[in-house]
């Protein structure tokens, strides 16, 4: 599985499992047995948009693109800058 395919697959499966809107891809890396993809999603839409609640999810795919694991790492308001790594 190519890099871009892993990202698209992670987005598709995470959205399908949670129903949450994908905001952005935060990171992706090849692992020995698959892929690790970090995805930011909109947990709660708000008015104004700057008050949306965003969550960072970490997903693991096997080498064939099957999701093996996903977990929410943290949440923040869109207006809050996320400077942690």
Describe this structure in words.
- It is a single chain.
- With 85 residues, the protein is α+β, with helices and mostly antiparallel strands.
- It has a single domain (3-77), classed as Nuclear Transport Factor 2, Chain: A, CATH 3.10.450.
- The chain has 1 helix and 4 strands, in the order H-E-E-E-E.
- Strands 1-2-3-4 form a 4-stranded antiparallel sheet, with helices on one face.
- The longest helix has 16 residues, at 3-18.
Our count of helices gives: 1
Number of domains: 1
Q: Order of helices and strands, N to C?
A: HEEEE
In whole angstroms, the N-to-C terminal distance is 27 Å
Strand order, biggest sheet? 1-2-3-4
* CATH class category: Alpha Beta
CATH architecture: Roll
**Weakly predicted, low-confidence segments:** none
Percentage of residues assigned to helices: 10-25%
Q: What's a quick, concise take on this entry?
A:
The protein has a single domain (3-77), classed as Roll (Nuclear Transport Factor 2, Chain: A), CATH 3.10.450. Helix content is 19%, strand content 51%.
Keywords:
1 helix; Nuclear Transport Factor 2, Chain: A; 4 strands; about 80 residues; alpha+beta; single chain; four-stranded antiparallel sheet
Protein topology:
Blueprint (H helix, E strand, L loop, with lengths): L2 H16 L2 E11 L2 E11 L8 E10 L4 E11 L8
Antiparallel strand pairs: 1-2, 2-3, 3-4
């Amino acid at each position: 599985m190519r890099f871009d395919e892993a990202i698209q697959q992670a987005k598709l499966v995470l959205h399908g499992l949670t129903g949450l809107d994908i905001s952005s891809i935060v990171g992706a890396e090849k692992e020995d047995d698959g892929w690790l993809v970090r995805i930011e999603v909109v947990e709660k839409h708000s008015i104004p948009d700057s008050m949306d609640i965003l969550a960072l999810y970490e997903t693991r795919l096997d080498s064939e693109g099957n999701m093996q694991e996903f977990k929410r790492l943290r949440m923040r308001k869109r207006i809050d800058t996320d400077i942690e790594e």
